[in-house]
Amino acid sequence: MRQNKDSYDVVVVGSGAGALASAIAAHAQGLSVLVVEKSDRYGGTSAVSGGGVWIPCNHQIAALGGEDNRADALTYLKSSTRGMVAEAKLEAYVDNAASMLRWFEEHTHVRFRSLPLYADYYQALPGSRPGYRTMDPEAFDAAELGEEFFNMREPSPGTLVGGRLAMTAADAHRMVSKEKGWMKLLGGLMARYWLDIAWRRRTRRDRRLALGNALIGRLRRTMLDRNIPLWLNTALVDLVERDGRISGLVIEHKGQRQTLTARRGVILGAGGFERNQALRERFLPNPTQSGWTAAPPTNTGDALLAGLKLGAATDLTDHAWWAPTMHVPGEEKQRALFMERALPGCVMVNGQGRRFVNEAAPYTDIVYAMYDDHARTGRSVPAWLVFDARFRSCYPIGPLLPGMVQPDFRVPEHWWGTMIHRATTLDALAEQIGVDAAGLADTVARMNGYAERGEDLEFGKGGNAFDRYYGDPDIKPNPCLAPILKAPFYAVRVDAGDIGTKGGLLTDEYARVLREDGSAIVGLYAIGNTAASVMGPTYPGAGSTLGPAMTFGYIAAHHLAAQQ
Ligand code: FAD
Fold first, then answer.
1. What does the pLDDT look like over 13-55, one tens digit per residue?
2. Quick check: 413 pLDDT over 90?
3. CA distance 550 to 21
4. Ligand 1 pocket test, candidate residues 53, 238, 499, most atoms within 8 A of CB
5. What is the CA(528)–ligand 1 centre distance, in A?
6. Which numbered atom of ligand 1 lies nearest the CA of 158?
7. 215, 546 Cβ separation under 8 angstroms
8. How far is the CA of 41 from the centre of ligand 1 (A)?
9. CB atoms near residue 316 (< 10 Å)
10. In the predicted model, is pLDDT for residue 2 greater than 80?
């Protein structure tokens, strides 16, 4: 919906969760706001994501029987960010995240639920918690969005059961770990989906939105209530600087350029440079491919480039929200392997057939380990996830449902040899995927020994609460370790992918973009993956990208409102 208006207090670029949150917060401060989105769909990576936010000291913790405090949250962040992030920014995050969330819950449609068992990723670091800080968006009824629902980016197929049914993170955990009642839950979700015949006639998409779609749906509904305009197919091309401040921007819509005035300023929330191969090669470790990302195609670093043109400083551009990803033929983006690796009975190996990492480690750390090992062996990018018939039968892998539900004869023919490899012996599998057979045999023998013992003597898989979150509780003594014995054997290629880049424009504790000399570019703010992350090089807990995106969006909105 386009209005012929070219002057606003604030223009927000991009329509991910941080961008929409900042637009709503600025509007609530009495400012006139426009959101411009380059794609023909709103929501960005945020819409296809898990939608989780990592909110230390959130208001639900105490009610759920947990405990958190500012000092521990800061201690944890300081150690996990390894001195690479300004203290003022860490403090701004810890001091504002919980109040941001509370404000949204009280004044908008946004609702989250704290996950008591979703452990911080670095359990050994001081100040970590075994749960509660990660929060899952509550499911949302797509019908609340009216026709605007169809303009939202669709969820990742990887987050849908059978490519159709939406599930919250809590549902997913119950199903994967086969908690009591999981079958009833699945049956209920299926019945709700298939019996909703009136909705089925309109679309195959699930009416019950979950994860990133629920979060974006809730934010978008709030924008509709407030009449905040959102222009699709409208790209930032350049920023306009006048009298020493950012006073607007040049946009392009259907080939036409237009200058918009932003009296208070511009908030850049246009994602990272995941899909810009030249920027990836310039900043990230090599080899790297834009095709390995799980982010949508429109995140090409436009806002980063616009900031660089103005002399903005950057930071962390050699880092990403790394995640091992797999290719599914015909899909637009790769699928992140979040859960599969932690399950018992699989092993991740390099071309020598050797392990180089705890398979259950945080996804970011898996890819750091891939690059580290690649620097030594030249054979870890790509790596391979190898498993046996028992694993295949019991657990999902990428788009494959467990073999007991989707046996091999139901796997599309063109996936064999492209997405998944299978052989009757480990040696034959090794040959098929170009991995050293003796190395693989030795690795599997060792892993089988660790499974019997219940302890991974090399990498400690399953040795902490985070690893075990996606383990199989029926497997004892270690829910992340089981032998790899039963033919046929399978392998999936693992790419050094990401769920977003995390380096970008350097910002201060108010989300203002800084120059190399540390001075702020007046009127210019950056959030989400357009900005260098407050989380430094690591991933402290699930929701570490969206929590800060929304929090610094909220901070930026308040800062803008306080300016003349
Ligand atoms: P985006 O959400 O990608 O939004 C950027 C938007 O800007 C896009 O819509 C893009 O089209 C638009 N844009 C780009 N260029 C321009 C331009 N020139 N003009 C106008 N618009 C432009 N993170 C979490 O914290 N919690 C999770 O649970 C989680 N789960 C994930 C699961 C998956 C499968 C994936 C892929 C990611 C997940 N992430 C998660 C990561 C998270 O989704 C991203 O890091 C986050 O969404 C980035 O937000 P953003 O606002 O920076 O960018």
1. 999 999 999 999 999 999 999 999 999 999 999 999 999 999 9
2. yes
3. 6
4. 499
5. 8
6. 34
7. yes
8. 12
9. 21
10. no
**pLDDT tens-place string over residues 504-536:** 999 999 999 999 999 999 999 999 999 999 999
CATH of domain 230-322+499-562: 3.50.50.60
Give the nearest ligand 1 atom to 336 CA: 34
| 409 burial level (CB within 10 Å; 0-12, 13-18, 19+) | exposed
The domain limits of the chain are 45-211, 230-322+499-562, 323-497
Sign of CA dihedral 398, 404, 408, 409: negative
Q: Of all protein residues, whose CA lies closest to atom 19 belonging to ligand 1? A: 235
How large is the angle between the packed helices 182-195 and 169-176, nearest 10 degrees? 130
What residues flank ligand 1, with Cβ below 6 Å?
Answer: 13-19, 36-39, 44-46, 48-52, 156, 235-236, 269-271, 294-295, 298-299, 302, 321, 336, 499-500, 528-530, 542-546, 549
Split at pLDDT 50, 70, 90, the class of 3 is low
Ligand 1, residues 46, 276, 498: which to mutate, most atoms within 8 A of Cβ? 46
CA of 269 to the centre of ligand 1 (A): 9
Q: For ligand 1, what atom is nearest to the CA of residue 295? A: 36
Nearest 5°: the CA angle 534, 210, 527 is: 20
Tell me the residue length of the chain: 564
For residue 146, the SS3 value is: helix
Which fold would CATH assign to domain 323-497?
Flavocytochrome C3; Chain A, domain 1 (3.90.700)
CA 367 to chain centre: 14
Alpha-helix residue ranges (DSSP H) falling in 87-132: 87-107
Residue 1 has pLDDT above 80, yes or no: no
pLDDT at 564 over 80: no
Cα–Cα nearest to 56, from 101, 109, 24: 101
- Nearest CA residue ID for atom 53, ligand 1: 271
Q: What is the pLDDT of residues 357-393, one digit of tens each?
A: 999 999 999 999 999 999 999 999 999 999 999 999 9
